[in-house]
Amino acid sequence: MERHFDASLRELKEQLLGMAGYVERAIDNAVHGLQGRNPAKIRSVYEIERTVNREQVTVDESCVRLLALQQPMAVDLRLIVAIIKINTDLERMGDQAVNIANNSERYLALEPLKPLVDLPLMFDEVKGMVRDAINSFVRRDEALAREVLRRDDAVDELKRRIFTDVLAAMKGDPGRIDAGICLILIARNLERIGDHATNIAEDVVFAVSGEDIRHARREAP
Amino acid sequence: MERHFDASLRELKEQLLGMAGYVERAIDNAVHGLQGRNPAKIRSVYEIERTVNREQVTVDESCVRLLALQQPMAVDLRLIVAIIKINTDLERMGDQAVNIANNSERYLALEPLKPLVDLPLMFDEVKGMVRDAINSFVRRDEALAREVLRRDDAVDELKRRIFTDVLAAMKGDPGRIDAGICLILIARNLERIGDHATNIAEDVVFAVSGEDIRHARREAP
Known about the structure:
The structure is a homodimer. Chain A has a single domain, classed as Methane Monooxygenase Hydroxylase, Chain G, domain 1. By secondary structure, the first copy, chain A, is an all-alpha fold. Chain A has helices at about 5-35, 40-70, 75-110, 120-140, 140-170, 175-210, 215-220. The model of chain A has no long low-confidence stretch (mean pLDDT about 90). At the A-B interface, helix 2, helix 3, helix 5, helix 6 and helix 7 of A face helix 2, helix 3, helix 6, helix 7 and helix 8 of B.
């Protein structure tokens, strides 16, 4: 028979996954709205993000309740602490989706810079990181979480390339400065989403193995 | 006589405050290094941030240990959950200080855009928010925490003004596009630091009052 605690924990995980689903949709709609020049899709992000915000509060309440009533130990405690952090990162991914939506709305009002340089490539990469970070949590898959961490460099490299290309376009035609700034900010927003995926992957490693790898990894030569 | 738990909690708070001190110094050195065109000061940020990272791990370990060994309830539990989150926000402020340092190093290698538009003003505002967010935690001062939340709009307004001024400078002289981008990114970094101060203030309100005001406030008309 399932312990009461296990049932509560399963419910909490499902809440978190539901929230992750909304976050992924917010990011998708922001980027696809930009790519397809679809203002309605871009604006849908704002409503989805409000749902994410409500879910965040619910998840946090569940975590505090579980800590208070069940006083979990060891691996369960680590998991709940990890969920508190993952919850924050998911909500901030939602904020970044809103930032992308804002920058995309501004971009669509301007003469487009085409093509969208490497943004679609960067988007695919970041989307994959988000998906795998969430999957690593679901499956308690430490190897997959560590795989997410390794992909961060590719995203940084794409961002650098986008910056270079956009700067060149802006210098070639100062009439494109406003549009260029929008794309640079969107690349930054995507980079931040990748960072949050990385944070989630680190929390998964911590929850599964008890090892705090956050700065050990970042400070490697 | 002080309970063992109270002593541990006091120690944890002191750890967090020590870390906050490093974070404030990292932000100061990044911005003053830019303002004073002082590369050594800018580079000092990288070392300080490594200290912040180490402190973050220590604070998190203390939180998990306190939760496991003392199984705190109600207000103590809320405080520890708040500290877990504040710890994350402080560490990310440190990341933003590093971003400011990076962008400042790039900026100093270029023909300067002078004056630094409203960046010094924005810096003072953000610095005040960080200070008061930390003070509101130390004093368990809900009113001060709510005051921090209200100041976020002023920071956003300054950022908008900086964007407008820098864009105008870039359009007036495309030779300044690279320098302009640096300042725009620094303004974004400062805005993010202000957001983290806001997050901390929200966590203080939660810890003190048990009220989760995060999205109630943000979604007010």
